[in-house]
Amino acid sequence: MEVIIVPTPTDVGRVAAAKIADVVARRASPVIGFATGSSPQHLYADLHRRVEAGVISFATARGFALDEYAGIPPAHPQSYASVIARDVVSPLGFDPARVHVPDGRATDLRGAAADYEAAIDAAGGIDIQILGIGSNGHIGFNEPTSSLASRTRIKTLAQRTREDNARFFDSPADVPRHCITQGLGTILDARELLLVAQGEAKADAIAATVEGPLGAMVPGTALQLHPHATVVVDEAAASKLRLSDYYRYTYSHKPAWQRFE
Ligand code: F6R
Prior knowledge:
By secondary structure, this protein is an alpha/beta fold. The protein is 34% helix and 16% strand. The protein has one domain: 3-Layer(aba) Sandwich (Rossmann fold). Bound molecules: fructose -6-phosphate (F6R). Residues 35-39, 66-67, 132-134, 138-140 line the site of fructose -6-phosphate.
């Protein structure tokens, strides 16, 4: 796992965007996995800047969201279908027909989850999966005790996740209780993983993910099983890492041929 510690959230966005740009430059039709929420906002803003400057294009790219709330209509402003359309598809110039979000309104949610797995396969798999992390260590909506081998499926949101996400809704009671999420096994199938985090509230989850024992109680630790996982964090999110000096040393001595920015 490569851990990159940078001073500010803006730097997190810049470095993570450089990583995406590197993948996009190597693929004729890149397939990108999207996280929603606050964590990737600086990353999406930096990519938007690059699109505006004409140095990157997503015209031939495809995309898959990590997750979707169950039971709220796609047109709801906080559905992940709406968030992805607003934060990703439109500013980055994706073809909306090439960007997929799990169907949280399907009458057959199991079938919708299986169809989502099949769609990812049909696209040739995900080249790079963008991830945020919950304060309880979840990635996607794989809450603690999710199987490390899980596939896309229905999950019940942890109370802590519902409290954390209440800020997006008019009232805490409006936060859905269920979701469809890519599983940890699905996430691990992506060719590269890119996790971004900023702020003190993520420091425990980042320390456990990077340095803690592998285990279902901290789903983020699944990254330890992936051969190409990059974690980009600001100083606050890195503040509980024990080996931060080593990560800084490693990054500053990275050979030029291995750098992506
Ligand atoms: C959402 C997702 C979640 C979030 C996590 C952090 O698509 O995959 O794992 O990344 O809940 O949320 P924020 O970034 O809002 O703190």
